[in-house]
Amino acid sequence: MTPRVPGLTDLQPTDAPEGVTAWLGWAGDLPVTIVVEEPATEEQLDTSFIAGVLADADAWIVRAGDAVEEFYRAEAGTATGWSPEATFWAGQEWSIRFAECPLPEVGDLGVAVLFSGETLDSVEDLSADDADDAHGR
Fold first, then answer.
1. Where do the structural domains in the chain lie, given as residue ranges?
2. Which pTM value belongs to this model?
């Protein structure tokens, strides 16, 4: 069953590995993916929380962009132009990935900012060979 999230349009199932259910939709120009990985269930999606984040998406994108600039200790301009994408998992775990961050340190896969609820957990260089290196900066 496709989750119903206010502010999210064209939510459609998308291909996913075994044990994972995923949907792709849009909040304005922002692509949004919702993912449920076993043993989590669709009932564990916090659609009210997702709707709240999406209602203030531009502010979250700016906050995530600021975190990326702090992580790399560099300025890169307006984060809303970095091709942001949002992903939500069961509960209140979510991320903003910047596919086209202009900082030269960011690799081809981009950079992700991970959140737990409204708390920023980490910034991850998705091109890093070792996840520990990405967190250790």
1. 40-135
2. 0.89
